[in-house]
Design goal:
With 349 residues, the chain is α/β, with parallel strands linked by helices. It folds into 2 domains: 154 residues, 3-Layer(aba) Sandwich (Rossmann fold), CATH 3.40.50; 135 residues, Response regulator (Rossmann fold). It contains 11 helices and 12 strands. The chain is elongated and about 60 Å long.
Amino acid sequence: MPEPTFTSRRGLLFGAAAVSAGALVTGCTSNEPSGGDETAANNQPAADDKPGKQVTIGFAGPQADHGWLNAINDNAKQRAEKYSDVTMEITEGSNDTAQQIGQIETLINKKVDVLVILPADGKALTQVGLKAMRAGIPVVNLDRIFNSPQAYRCWVGGDNYGMGLNAGHYIGEKLKDKPDAKVIELSGPDNLELTRQRTQGFDDALKNYPDIRKVARQAAEFTVESGQSRMSQLLQAQSQFDALWNHDDDQGVGALRAIEQAGRDDFLMVGGAGALSAFEAIKADNGVLKATVLYPPTMAASAIDLARALGQGKGIGGLAEFEIPSSVTCYSAVVDKDNVDQYMPTGFR
């Protein structure tokens, strides 16, 4: 989730031709309920799990210093374990771009069949993506996008604009009958493109509700501490409002602390990303948090599905194309008390 580079909002762009024979991408969109402590990737049925050609997938991501990033790693590893024909080569992970480039170059030198890369900085790692592609190693670019489409064969990731759009529509529908309703926003860091996209989507959605006004916005840093301090500032500045949209469930933990300390319960809150703690609070339904908008870490499981299909020369079952898509955008579903049980297995810690 925290991202120092541009994350594009992309549609489903398909490759050539007709009838496919391969992997069904389930990680982005699967809704099947299940139980236990494993991630959704380990609970959902694996795509096309009939053994095929052996594929070695190199996986390189940033340091898992955030709940969402840790869930990305877990989803990728557990998805790969579903396949007897997949071997994973996993790097240690680093937020230092030079170190991550070195890790990816090691995977290239090992001649892995496919690379799955979630870059710490998409712009800075574009050249190593190009290097892999030129070496004949297809790249699945996960979430944070490279600067050039020549640096990857397929991109799979979340929809930041869609997060804001769906959060805005949810709040709009809840407040549409309330005269002069006021909303506030606790965003992510303003230097990130993803933050600007989420805010833009939120603002665009609110345009459909002329009686609702956004009266304040504060940027946090995707951390518990920043969420608590910035939320405290918002509460001090705004004595009355009807709804809050918080971009990130990790910083939302801090925001909820500030709200509890202030003794406020006179508004509804919508979160972002899909943390297990948020799901549990929504299910309990005894506080201000009523919904969260997904940025699903199950996209990493889908990336493994796509990488395996690329390594085996397959397409995606259920689609007419011979080739896998060039781009897959995961949907930012709204999770509230009506459907939280369905999504509980996808929640990350």
